[in-house]
Write a structure and sequence with these properties.
Length: about 375
């Protein structure tokens, strides 16, 4: 039986571990830092939405996977969490709505125009369903091809949500907030159903052992506070997060959890749920990476930390260099830092600032650190 005729589960289970496809120096760098030891330099983790950068390193490439891989390989970024193809500059100012998806675009901004669930009646009748075993393993097998495209310079990290953001994303925060009171059991049912699907995916990745990390993204915070009360999160978020983390933790796969906004008030609960790394550590939301490193830096990887909303797009090249050095000084000693932007490199970020950012990571991030 040839590899092309194998079913996706057999193909995934027969695949080699990440260590076998990555450059040994890159793999060692990532794993030492993740073990709170100092490798050759601080690993870099990011997401890039920049047309100039993609045209610089992947000119004319229209396949999102190949384009992103070429960009990350060229910049020697060690870890990638998402595949993306930026929108060209000539799309600026264009506006349009796709009624079938409920998304509207204008310039470089994309937002939801309407939600699938608009009323309590919609919520009560909705069943998100579960992925089949074949669908789950097809996804894992797809990851193999993506991992190969990014290797050997960059490790592509698989992942998904855990059901909470997915649920409020079906109806928007206004309807979700009302439904927490007027249709609480139905909201809980949908969250748990979506969480069940997330657990199925986590179990498959845990069994396949294709990457030592797994990315979970569920936005739950604003600047200075969480978006939801602690009572709501204690009931409908943290137990569900723990269910997704459990099979991954049992397989020694480290969970990197992503939420924009302020997280310092919930770090203990995130770690208790099974999170091994926190991303993207948005400084203007009130997160102090130096304090986070001091309090949680021996059992949680700091992932991100360099301001992407003001410093990277609006600062000078020298500002970017100094700001990047400050994050490395604050959180890089003793390992445990994957440096990157505080969410993503946004489209308006000047090309020279982006290049200066990663150059500084490579130069100043070498151990032993200078500052």
């Amino acid at each position: 039986m040839t590899e092309s005729t194998l079913d996706p589960k057999t193909l995934a289970l027969a695949a080699p571990p990440a260590e076998a496809v990555l450059d040994p120096t890159v793999y060692e760098r990532i794993m030492l830092a993740a073990s709170f030891l100092e490798p050759d330099r601080v690993p870099i983790w990011d997401f890039i939405d920049s047309w100039p950068i993609y045209q610089r390193f992947a000119p004319g490439e229209t396949d999102p996977t190949m384009a992103t891989a070429k960009v990350f390989n060229s910049l020697e970024i060690d870890l990638c969490r998402s595949i993306y193809l930026p929108r060209p500059p000539d799309s600026d100012g264009e506006a349009g709505a796709n009624e079938s998806t409920g998304w509207k675009t204008s310039g470089k901004t994309v937002w939801v125009t309407h939600y699938p669930l608009k009323s309590l009646e919609d919520i009560r009748s909705y069943d998100p369903g579960l992925p089949t075993e074949e669908q789950v393993w097809n996804e894992v097998a797809w990851y193999l091809g993506v991992r190969e495209a990014f290797a050997p310079t960059t490790l592509y990290v698989p992942g998904g949500g855990m059901g909470f953001h997915g649920t409020y994303g079906l109806m928007g925060l206004q309807v979700f907030s009302m439904a927490l009171y007027d249709a609480h059991d139905e909201v809980e049912r949908i969250i748990n159903r979506m969480n069940e699907g997330a657990v199925l995916r986590a179990r498959a990745y845990s069994e396949a052992q294709l990457c030592p990390f797994y990315f979970i993204g569920d936005d739950i915070a604003y600047k200075d506070r969480t978006m939801f009360s602690h009572a709501v999160m204690d009931e409908l978020f943290f137990p569900q997060l723990a269910r997704v983390c459990e099979p991954l933790n049992n397989a020694d796969i480290k969970v990197i959890f992503h939420t924009d906004g302020y997280v310092m008030g919930i770090m203990d609960k995130l770690i208790e749920a099974g999170v091994s790394g926190i991303n993207p550590i948005e400084p203007l939301a009130g997160n102090d990476i130096a304090e986070m490193k001091r309090r949680w830096g021996r059992n949680c990887i700091m992932v991100g930390g360099v301001d992407c909303s003001q410093l990277l797009p609006l600062g000078s090249v020298e500002d970017v260099r100094e700001g990047t050095k400050a994050v490395i000084r604050a959180a890089g000693h003793g390992g445990g830092l994957f440096i990157g932007s505080s969410s993503e490199i946004v489209p308006v970020t000047p090309e020279e600032n982006i290049l200066a950012f990663y150059e500084t990571c490579h130069e100043f991030g070498r151990y032993p650190l200078k500052g």
